[in-house]
Every structure is written in structure tokens, then in C-alpha cells.
């Protein structure tokens, strides 16, 4: 099957019944006959026999409910994913530009599909890094055919601020509540897209709009917006980009894209209370 994410095609070699267990994929299924209208980002193949690594991993990441191991080699990247509630580990092997991804994943019911969804997300993060596209940890809304993103650490109020827009600013809809996609377009503009990954909020929209403003959230006792310069924006974006790290090749592409976003999109430090006035303040800045 093929999925279209942020205008890119991702091919996934898996049974059709996987989609029944992963409803977040359904809005992104590519049903078009002419693949030339969208470029293929990568291909994820399943059912391969992959040998375990005999050396210590380059990086180990403890995530929610799973552990991820990463090996970086001159000719390939290897990821091993262990789900804490399963006895089986899944392995992924990708070439260095992540255009072809081999996995030992096999369909074994609903639980196994969560691992394939994780592999798809990892493959998208790394393959898109070479195509001026990045996955961000943020909450994003759309209003009047323009988008903005609320960025910051978990618990700082990103989702709350999105809800305030939905409640108090007519014509607003939620685009994604956890992992929207930023993409640099050929004309130099930056667009924000929905993705199949939206945290605990079931919001999976396959659409994109021009990104008009960035707001870095900070809880405060009063509402105040401070315009940030490009260098400050770059470093703040870098803290929130979705990536495993330590891969210099993909990091170079991510950094270049972040630098362009930082220079092209107005960005503000939004010191705020969780109230209507804060939403009106950020809306006025985006509209202006």
C-alpha cells in the first residue's frame, strides 16, 4: 500500500488488514493511480530475515512502553525495537538516505501493528530529513487557510492553547496535536501538514497549509508575546524536532531546513495564562 504524508508517498509492503488496526493511517491512504503527482520518499519492506547485531548500539532510547536501539554504520542504519508488553523484538535496516527500509516485521495481529507504525514514523523522520521536511513535536491549528504551531516541552500548554483557539476563534480546526510536519516548498514558503501521529488526541488530517507563525509556549502570570530572532528560533526548534540523534547525515538536512524555517516564519515567545485573552493575542499576531 501507499501512504501520502505531507505530499510525499511512502510505500509500505504489508497486508491490507493492517489498516483496520491502525485507523491513523486511513486518511493517508494513497488511492491515486498517477504516482507522478507525488514523489516517493521511501519504501518500507517487511518479512526480511535480519541478523542481530553483535556490537553495542550507538544509542539506546527509552520511550513510552518500548526501548529503541540504534546502530549507525557507514553503509546503513539499524534500529531494533522492543515493545515492553511483547516478547519479540523487531529490527529495521535502512540504507543511508533511508529510501529503502528492510524490516523483519510480520503481521501477527493488532499488537504487532504498533511496531510497524513506529517503524513507519522512524522511516519518515529520517527519509524526509533529506527532502527539506521535518516532523515536529508541536500542536498545530488552521484558521482561514493559514496555520500556526505551538511548540514547547510536554505539559507547557500546547494542547490547551489549541483548544482555546477552537473555543474562541471562529473557523479554527485542529490540524495535529503532537507531530505535525513542516515542509519547505519549492517557492521558499513553509507549509505545515497533519500526520498519522497525533499523540493521545485522535486528529489525523491529511492536509496542509502555509505556516504563518510559530509560538514557543511558556506559562506565566500575564499574557505577553516577544518576537524572537532567527538564531533563537533555530535553537528552540532544534529542541523540539523529532529525531533520534547522532546521525550526522540526516542532522545536516534537518539543520538546513530548520534554519530556513527560522528565517522565513515569524516566531514569538508566548508567555501566557490558559485563557481566552492569550488565544486572542496569538491569533492577532498570526493574522497581522
Topology (elements, then pairings):
Blueprint: E1 2-5, E2 8-12, H1 18-21, E3 40-45, E4 59-63, E5 66-72, E6 76-83, E7 89-95, E8 100-103, H2 110-128, E9 133-135, E10 138-143, E11 146-151, H3 158-168, E12 172-176, E13 181-184, E14 190-193, E15 208-219, E16 224-227, H4 230-240, H5 248-264, E17 267-272, H6 276-287
Parallel strand pairs: 2-3, 3-8, 11-15, 15-17
Antiparallel strand pairs: 1-2, 4-5, 5-6, 6-7, 7-8, 9-13, 10-11, 10-12, 13-14, 14-15, 16-17
Helix pairs in contact: 3-6, 4-5
Alpha carbon gyration radius: 19 Å
Distance between the termini: 42 Å
Assign the structural class, choosing from mainly alpha, mainly beta, alpha/beta, alpha+beta, or little secondary structure: alpha+beta
From the spread of the alpha carbons, the general shape counts as globular
Helical coverage, percent range: 25-40%
Number of strands: 17
CATH C-level class of the largest domain: Alpha Beta
Strand content: 25-35%
User: What name is given to the CATH topology of the largest domain?
Assistant: Phosphoenolpyruvate Carboxykinase, domain 3
- N-to-C SSE series? EEHEEEEEEHEEEHEEEEEHHEH
Q: What is the domain total for the residues?
A: 2
* Biggest sheet layout: 9 strands, mixed
The CATH architecture designation of the largest domain is Alpha-Beta Complex
Instruction: Please count the helical segments.
Output: 6
Contiguous uncertain segments of 5+ residues: none
Q: How confident is the prediction overall: mean pLDDT?
A: 94
